[in-house]
């Protein structure tokens, strides 16, 4: 959630320091800011956290549709060889933040990325790409600037 002009960009309770990404946003289903769209499930499938899902709300705020999010993630997946039958949605681009998330996710990360640091670093890149393709520049540019300046 973006704060007022003189307040922090994000709620410090809604970020995690993970290998490869300091202050990574938690997924929207757990209250994260728009950077967390990188951790959203594939909208074409039923959701595990459907009662908590804020994806549509966050997509509306950034100015993207489900279809655009899917295409951004699929393109990123192809470019990074992230397509993988071991994971729920057949691509690491749709995988979440949680350790031992979906069935076989951690094994797929080890095989495809080599480490959690490489995985989360790429998820950060995907978050930036999602926000750069969004239409609500006033909302997204602050998050992009933060990531490009400090998010390493």
Report helical residue fraction: 40-55%
Q: State the strand order across the main sheet.
A: 1-2
Q: pLDDT under 50 segments (min length 5)?
A: none
H/E topology pattern: EEHHHHH
What is the number of beta strands?
2
Q: Structural class of the secondary elements?
A: mainly alpha
Rough outline = globular
Report how far the terminal alpha carbons are from each other: 20 Å
Radius of gyration: 14 Å
Task: Work out the strand percent.
Answer: 5-15%
Count of domains: 1
The main β sheet shows up as:
2 strands, antiparallel
Number of helices: 5
Oligomerization state: single chain
On the 0 to 100 scale, the average pLDDT is 89
Question: Can you give me a brief rundown of this structure?
Answer:
The protein has 152 residues and is mainly alpha-helical. 41% of the residues lie in helices and 6% in strands.
